[in-house]
Design a protein that fits this description.
Structural class: alpha/beta
Helix content: 10-25%
Number of strands: 9
Strand order of the largest sheet: 4-3-5-6-7
Radius of gyration: 21 Å
Length: about 260
């Protein structure tokens, strides 16, 4: 593909390496930085600019989603394209098992206080294959993260950017945003656009924040604390989601390849 990717940054910090693999499907050429052309006039014959991160009306954050709209063809195509071009495939398909991934956080806030107890409770269910993962790029590359997500049937995590992996779950999967910390549309809308089932915590009387939360400037804030969850209520939701996932896995049929007429 005769395409160059120009990064609008002057930094050569390791930040760019976090998603270095994500450029591979688009170009095999070296990535360029705008600082490489400092003091020069650059002309483009053809150019395409991205939407700004978190821009009003942009993609993912602040996306205007029509009520009831789901299964965005664009989101599904993007997911399929990235996984195919990066060589990410499904492991052996088992319609009688639910592969559960609990995404743990290596951060100060939004940790699951009783995470070990929740994991032990899930492991008592014979058809749940439970793993705890931490998506840190130094320990797990972006492609490795995608492979794990794509081979997850039930993806669980606290509110946070790790839930963007909802984009790369298989068609029959479900995502359980354990607590949305008051941001109730963000990952709900993302999962809906991708076309996977979404769930968040339902009973606020059965979740126990460590404290009121401490935003550095705004004071009390739900995103700046840690949470414990009622185990019985947690398992009630898990079993319902697992049943839904199994039903979809058993009904799922591999899409037929598109037939194309060659000239």
């Amino acid at each position: 593909m005769l395409l160059y990717c120009l990064l609008f940054t002057q930094s050569y910090s390791p930040y760019g390496e976090l998603f270095e693999d994500a450029w591979q499907p688009f170009t095999k050429r070296p990535r360029l930085r705008i600082s490489d052309f400092a003091g020069q006039r650059v002309c483009f014959k053809d150019v395409m600019f991205p939407l700004l991160p978190r821009m009003r009306g942009g993609l993912y954050y602040n996306t205007y989603v029509v009520p009831g709209c789901e299964h965005s063809a664009m989101m599904e195509a993007f997911s399929e394209f990235m996984l195919r071009e990066l060589g990410v495939e499904q492991d052996e398909f088992n319609a009688d098992k639910v592969r559960v991934s609990l995404l743990a956080r290596d951060t100060k806030y939004r940790n699951i206080i009783n995470q070990d107890e929740l994991v032990r409770a899930m492991k008592t269910v014979s058809f749940l294959d439970v793993q705890v993962v931490v998506y840190k790029y130094k320990a797990m590359s972006f492609i490795q993260q995608l492979k794990h997500s794509y081979n997850s049937d039930l993806f669980i995590g606290m509110h946070g950017s790790g839930l963007t992996h909802s984009l790369f779950l298989p068609d029959w999967a479900a995502v359980f945003e354990l607590h949305n910390t008051g941001d109730d549309r963000c990952y709900h809308d993302l999962a809906r656009q991708r076309g996977v089932q979404y769930q968040t915590w339902e009973n606020e009387n059965k979740v126990f924040p460590e404290d009121e939360g401490h935003h550095p400037t705004l004071g009390a804030h739900k995103k700046f604390t840690n949470y414990a969850f009622d185990i019985e209520e947690f398992m009630r939701i898990i079993m319902r989601l697992a049943d839904d996932v199994l039903s979809r896995k058993r009904a799922w049929k591999k899409p037929e390849p598109l037939l194309r007429d060659e000239l």
